[in-house]
């Protein structure tokens, strides 16, 4: 089984005024979230372990998760009336139950990496994206642990704290780092055999962001929801990264498992992921 990574068809442009307004609003919400997460990191050890609402019994739900999502919903309802919001904690919520006529919806994960947040480990993030039928059109990821707000919009590039991120350099798998969430032992062993290191950050959004930044050559996610990854996938797309689904097809917002990789190594990484080496 060998992937033949290809570039997905270019997504159609989005109204420039809408993109600018969405970026500004998303950036404000990301800054709000970063302040709250920084102030409360490691202080919610009394949070509830909600095994009924989530499939993974290690998936914490805290007051901060709920508070940040409610705040996000209030602001978006006021500034983008008629646009539904899909979130980790409240699903489709009480707003519109379907995307707009243009197929647009907001997708939010108030704290991606809540177990890290509860433990006081600063590898957690706030993620927000405006998604249309062609994938994320606007994405922000707040990384409070490193004091960074990452933002991107379709066709406008990728910025870190307002500064354009440099273009991607040539890379190879050997000697590089690969981010992975819930990797199996076989994948980790294949990466070691390829002389690459695997890092599990505990945050899907931050794992993908490391690829967009060029810190890691790839990220493999075995299972995730759109709110975990939508914001970071916008960053990845604007950085030039390749996004592949389990079948090796280019996809803007894959369901389930995915590979996000630098173009130079996408074929090799897909083979390592799917065990075809």
UniProtKB/TrEMBL annotation:
Extract the CDD domains matched here.
Answer: IMPase_like
Question: What EC number(s) does this enzyme carry?
Answer: 3.1.3.25
Pfam families, per the entry: Inositol_P
Under the heading PANTHER family, the entry gives: INOSITOL MONOPHOSPHATASE (PTHR20854), INOSITOL-1-MONOPHOSPHATASE-RELATED (PTHR20854:SF4)
**Which enzyme class?**
hydrolase
Source lineage = Bacteria, Bacillati, Actinomycetota, Actinomycetes, Pseudonocardiales
Reaction(s) catalyzed by this protein? a myo-inositol phosphate + H2O = myo-inositol + phosphate
The protein in question is named: inositol-phosphate phosphatase
Name the SUPFAM superfamilies on file.
Answer: Carbohydrate phosphatase
Tell me the keywords, alphabetical order: Magnesium, Metal-binding
């Amino acid at each position: 089984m060998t992937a033949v990574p290809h570039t997905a068809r270019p997504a159609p442009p989005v109204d420039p005024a809408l993109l600018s307004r969405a970026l500004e609003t998303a950036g404000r919400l990301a800054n709000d979230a970063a302040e709250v997460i920084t102030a409360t990191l490691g202080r919610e050890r009394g949070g509830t372990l909600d095994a009924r609402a989530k499939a993974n019994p290690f998936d914490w739900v805290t007051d901060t998760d709920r508070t940040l999502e409610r705040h996000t919903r209030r602001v978006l309802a006021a500034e983008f009336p008629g646009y539904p919001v899909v979130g980790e904690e409240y699903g489709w919520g009480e707003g519109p139950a379907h995307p707009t006529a243009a197929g647009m919806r907001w997708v939010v994960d108030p704290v991606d990496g809540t177990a890290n947040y509860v433990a006081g480990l600063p590898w957690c993030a706030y993620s927000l994206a405006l998604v249309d039928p062609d994938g994320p059109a606007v994405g922000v990821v707040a990384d409070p642990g490193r004091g960074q707000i990452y933002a991107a919009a379709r066709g406008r590039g990728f910025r870190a704290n307002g500064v354009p991120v440099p273009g991607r350099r040539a890379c190879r798998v050997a000697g590089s780092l690969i981010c992975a969430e819930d990797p199996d032992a076989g994948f980790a062993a294949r990466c070691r055999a390829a002389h690459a290191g695997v890092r599990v950050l505990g945050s899907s959004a931050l794992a993908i962001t490391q690829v967009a930044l060029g810190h890691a050559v790839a990220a493999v996610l075995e299972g995730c929801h759109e709110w975990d990854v939508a914001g970071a996938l916008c960053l990845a797309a604007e950085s030039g990264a390749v996004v592949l689904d389990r079948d090796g097809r280019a996809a803007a917002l894959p369901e389930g498992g995915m590979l996000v990789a630098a173009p130079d190594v996408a074929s090799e990484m897909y083979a390592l992921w799917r065990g075809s080496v």
